[in-house]
Prior knowledge:
Elements: E1 6-9, H1 24-35, E2 39-43, H2 53-56, E3 62-65, E4 70-73, E5 76-80, H3 85-97, E6 102-106, E7 109-112, H4 116-124, H5 128-134, E8 149-155, H6 163-168, E9 174-178, E10 187-191, H7 197-208, E11 215-219, H8 225-229, E12 233-236, H9 242-245, E13 250-251, H10 259-266
Parallel strand pairs: 1-2, 1-11, 2-3, 11-12, 12-13
Antiparallel strand pairs: 3-4, 4-5, 6-7, 6-8, 8-10, 9-10
Helix pairs in contact: 1-10, 4-5
Amino acid sequence: MTKSKILLLDVDGTLVRHDTSLPSSAAEAVRAARAAGHQLFICTGRAKAEIYEHLWELGLDGMIGGNGSYIEHHDEVVHHQVLDVDVVQQAIDWLESRHLAFYLECNSGLFGSPELFEQAADRLGKTPAYVRDIFPEMVHDTSRGHDDVNKISFVLPRGTDLDELRRLFDGRASVASWTASGVEDEFGEIGQLGVDKGRGVRLLADHLGRGTDDFIAFGDARSDIALLESCGTGVAMGQAPDELKGVATWVTDSVDDDGLAHAFERLGLV
């Protein structure tokens, strides 16, 4: 493959394992692809505040964050939109009334409720220390960041019916769920209407002046369906759900089996 490509990497379950550790094979592949002249962006549900220095040190050219609500290229903010502050406050009121731990995902920081680590640990079958390691810079103060919220995540007890929340925010916000373990959905999510990774890809392509046929996407979750569909080549990780594999160009190995590195090799990126 001689022409430079734009590589878009989901983070959790794709670039890093579900415990957030970075496989050495993935780090080496990313650096080698960058050295070969390809541009690399992460395309993630994470806010910028959750992209820690060891990820930037891989040589990233930028990011699509908040599932498409934030785009950055070489420190230039290409696009940023946030949840309405009234939606944020109403969501906080709803979550607190049901004693559900949550955190506000902002570029300025991650702002979590006091009981977040304990509730998340119980839901994941882990210790609070394990959750603390995943969110090393979490600030336990949900009075902050209300005008900078990309989305809100909350601990989702088994059997929770999200229809009430969808009715509450009908026409004003989206409601979904996601997995931190790769096994089942342990978290709910309140996000922005009309925002997804595919839209982020199109905005980035316009900014770069490149066609999306030159984009290669890598993902592992339902939130990556729009990402893979929007790019010329879409690669699903081996542990991805069937819905994602169904829209992928092809499927690589799982994140625990060096799937990203194997995909880079097969595509001739390194």
